[in-house]
Amino acid sequence: MLFAVVCFISVLNAYATNNMFELPPSSIQNQTQSLSIPLTLNNLSFLDIESIDLSIGYDPNVLTATGISLTGTVLNSQSYLYAFNTDISGIIYALFAASSNIYTRTGLLLNLEFTVIGTSGETSDITISQALFNNVPASRSHGIFTVAPNAPPTITGLSPQTMNEDDSHSTSFKLNDYETPACDIIPTFETSDPTILSINNISYTCLAGSITLTVTPSANQWGTVTLTVTATDTGGLTNSQSFELTVSPVNDAPILANSISNRIAIEGTAYEYTFPENTFTDADPGDTLTYSASQSNDNPLPSWLSFDPATRTFSGLPTNADIGVIMIKITATDTSMESISDTFELNVTNTNNPPVLDIPIADDSIQEDAAYSFTFDANTFSDIDVGDSISYTAMLTDNSPLPSWLTFDAINRNFSGTPLNEHVGTITILIIASDTSNLTATDTFYLTVENVNDSPLISNISDQSTNEDTVLGGISFTVIDEDGDSLMVSATSSNPNLVANENITIDGASSSRTITITPSSNEHGSTILTISASDGSITTTTTFTLTVASVNDAPTLSNIGSQNMDENSSLNVTVITADIDGDPLTITVSSSDQTLLPDSHISLSNDGDTYTITIQPATAQVGSSEITIEADDGTESRSTTFSVIVHEVHYTISGHVSSYTDVAGSSMAGVTMTLSGTHVYSQQTDAAGNFAFTSVRPGDYTLTAAKTDHIDLELADAITILKATVKKTTLGCHEKIAADAYIDGYYGAYDAAKVAQYVVGTENCVNDDCLFWQFIPEAISSCDTWPLIEIENVRRYTDLSGDALDQNFIGIGCGNVSY
Where is each Cadherin domain found (predicted)? Predict the structure, then answer.
């Protein structure tokens, strides 16, 4: 970036000396810390800022330059380009150049960023050795920097603290240090009595320099302890402060040390239980415990149960009325009337009696195929034991399960189901009643299923079809009578003209039957056939539809020979169709090569039975395709196929390339011309600058010119661009275009920097794409609206359908404004 200095021209400005670049007169910071020094521009003459060139010196033994920052400065986010260099020890270079808009600004220009490497007390001058404002020297002030000495941290806000035993306590104090943020200092702690307060029970948090200290003394400990806080900064200096912490004693409530397990008492048997002495404990020396007992809901103990608090003993004799579970609560109370309780279950168990049958179940009957439901009474069985429940099971008396048609709901004592013909008869049902101890009582009853006559059953026959004058036979179906009755099977037709009843034959015996149907000659249509089966009392029928279809004749198509055509043209082909049945025809056309000839490019029109097929191949496609024409009368179809061959067509695109050095220009050889799009072609211009593409296929194309040969750029080109940017010189029309080395639509300081860096070898390219030459398809006669005009650098051909001659280009050397 330093080479950009040569671009400034020493033009005197009477007001430049009234503009001053200022540094703060003095600054101070600690060792190893980052340092930011503001540099201010006082634009006292209120001039437009076209360019700024600064050189700032410093002592590299005290400071290391890390860069510059523009955040919040007067030229940040404005239309200025800048560059800086901190790689040279002891000096910083910074350069600003207006790109398109020029502003009048005053205030903070930039921040110089350093890292402090000197030791305490060392100093460094910060000197602006050169300051150019619009390429004219400007006033400047200097500053001095001093490395600050280290000082120990400070601790404030500690005072004596008081708290209760078995509690936590927090207090706050402040840490301050010049060179170390307070929350980066890690304080340490010492305690005078670790028995009362352990170091492990001390914690702290830091927020904005304020330390919140939290202490938790050991359990059941009290007394006074001295706590010392020590703070150490990053320079190793320390400071300590101490304060007293008084922990006041507090009475401890008794606790439940060992829970009492649940107990069992037996009806009619004497009960006694003494809970252990270590069930409850109290941490306070000399405290004694007294005991009381009640039910868990604070009601008194039941009358049969007594409690002796002196011996901690329960005793009593439960009776049958006392059977069940009670919850007993024991409470232990210390001399300060603080207490703790425990509860346990006392279960008084019973002696079991079996259930008994009180009301026998009567016999019952049900008809075949009828839904059955029967629920026996809840008081059929009983159990005298309090709280005993009865469950039920049901089976046959031979211990086999109930028949599949009959289910038993044990919870609701309900039998249900629907018996079928095969279930006719009598079964004997056994019901077992069981109590919770599996003692049982039983009862049996008879259930009779009575027979009822069943209708014959005929299997379904799906709808059938056959052609005209064709016998349809071998249609199988079944007839069944669950009662075993003999059946009479017959069939009738709803349309005797199509199928006469006498032309229906039923064959077979037992349950397997077949039906054969002979339609009347030359008849078609549909009829409903009804099949009947009778057992003498009940008749069952089923129906199906028979459709007799007429016989159809296929359509015909005329033959078509092979066809030839050029690409991007159309072709008409004629075909004649016929159908002797007079059926309307559906005509479809398809192509075997959808890339060459998509189906959507084939259209169809007709005059009666004569059809015209119009074929339009896809753009720029050649080759051959098989075209298939199909005629369909709705029942049958026929097709014919013919070949279409599409031949290539070629056009010429030619022109001349010259360099834009004058109106006439001079020929440019070796320019790469590329024609891309539907197809791709490439060649170089000859010694006279001419090019010609003679075999270009139809399609859409873009023609570009490119040349990568070296351009003889000089530093004078960069200086000329900078002078023109700040309006110190005037460029001609073609020079304005050449000055746009970055090819972004306008020229400015960045274009000059690109050229300068290329000349001195720090950049390999004039622009990001390494395009040394820019080509335009026509001369520019006026640049009055520059840089608003748009330059088209390609030629475009949409739907090429003929030769394109005199397609000329003019080349402009990027950045070359000195020729």
Answer: 453-557
